[in-house]
Amino acid sequence: MTSAHTRTSRRWTAVAALMGAILMAFPGVALAAPSTGVALVRAPSLKTLEIATVPPVPAARFAFDGQTLVTDGDGIARVTLPRSRDLHHLELLTPHLDAPGGLSLDFTRWVGRGDSDQGFTTSLPKVVLEHNKRIQATFQATKLVNLDFVDQAHNAVASSRVSSLTIRSDSGHIRTLRGGESMQLTAVRPAVEAGSAVAKEVTYYLDSVIIDGSNVVNAGEQRVAPSRTDSATFVVLLRSVHFQIRDRLFGHPIEAEMVVTYPDGTSSKLSTAQDGGVKLENLARGTYTIKVAGPGYTQLQTVTLSRSQYVDLPVLSYLDMGVMAGALLVILLCLVVFGRRLHAKRSREEDT
Predict the structure, then answer these.
(1) Read out DSSP for 193-225?
(2) Residue 103 has pLDDT above 60, yes or no
(3) Contact between residue 260 and residue 177 where contact means Cβ atoms under 8 Å apart
(4) Dihedral pair phi/psi, residue 263, rounded to 5°
(5) How far is 124 from 260, CA to CA, in rounded Å?
(6) Radius of gyration of the chain (CA)
(7) Any residues with CB less than 8 A from the CB of 175 and at least 6 apart, and which?
(8) Could you please report the per-residue DSSP string of 2-71?
(9) Which residues, 6+ apart, have CB-to-CB distance to 219 below 8 Å?
């Protein structure tokens, strides 16, 4: 009797040791012991869904099966559930957000669903949590950038003079603005690299600034990164020109009026000072046509302005015309007198 009892105790001791070894090797396994024997039951393991915003967006709100999730300071929200093949519903509740620094954020797409159809809507209706999963919600950030213009001496140039402005992003996207006060620019754009979303800072390069029908910048030399600033100051190449109206023959100054036609075809009428001079500043580089309306005869004169310069505008005055007419008359009289003398000389030689 004692021997049988001892053998039974040893069996239970061996079973207990085996159960302890199983518990140590498989911590997720629970043991149940019904009256009919001992059975092993595996408890459901926990899996985590991580939702990351790109770029990081704090306080973005999501709904997961009706439960509201809010991203932390790193732009991440998490939820942990038992592993299953159930279909869960994930939805972005804040597709538009205004962030500090003047950034405006708009949802673009999901990345990391694990299939080829990366969602472009704010709702993901078929999320399965069989494994730990990371899904990224990407946003595009834009910012209103104020534009200012100065000349090479850093004197302010009125933005109202700018008829159009063209910039080109580092991804090749071209934007043209009518006028030159401010424009909404992409500051950060999402991109997918090796299956994961990353935030790319956007830089724009200045291609043209049109003033008076002419481009007054060199393409690609100036740039702006909207994520780092809310204003940009561009240097435009403006020139000055000094016009001097003079008498063509005698060189003395003539007070007159002149009409300047700009590269865009517009015209302006100017009056010179008593010394016949007039100076124009902040002119766009390009080709100008000048017509002098003075006491005499003038022709249209074309000036190509690539640097600040002095332009002499000769006028054939009435005095010049009189002098030239008189000189021509004297020449004619001299020819007549010379011709008569020559004729008389030949007549005398023939008589002899």
Answers:
(1) ETTEEEEEE--EEEEEEEETTEE-S-TTS-EE-
(2) yes
(3) no
(4) -60, -25
(5) 65
(6) 44
(7) 166, 167, 168, 169, 183, 185, 204
(8) HHHHHHHHHHHHHHHHHHHHHHHH-TTEEEE--TT--EEEEPPPEEEEEEEEES--TT-EEEETTEEEE-
(9) 205, 206, 207, 208
Q: Residue 341 belongs to what H/E stretch?
A: helix 318-351
Residue 283 contacts residue 238 (beta carbons within 8 Å): yes
- Is 172 a residue whose pLDDT tops 50? yes
Distance CA 332, CA 18 (A): 140
Integer Cα distance of 34 and 58 in angstroms: 51
Cα four-point dihedral sign 67, 68, 73, 76? positive
For residue 146, the surrounding DSSP H or E stretch is strand 133-150
Could you give the CA distance from residue 147 to residue 269 in angstroms, rounded to a whole number? Answer: 31
Other Cβ atoms less than 10 A from the Cβ of 130: the count is: 11
Q: Which structure tokens are listed for 37?
A: 């024997």
Give the predicted TM-score (pTM) of the model: 0.72
- Give ∠ CA 192-83-195 in degrees, rounded to 5: 10
Task: Dig out the tokens for 231 from the structure.
Answer: 């204003």
Q: What is the pLDDT of residues 276-301, one digit of tens each?
A: 888 988 999 889 999 888 676 667 88
Rounded to 5 degrees, what are φ and ψ at 337? -60, -45
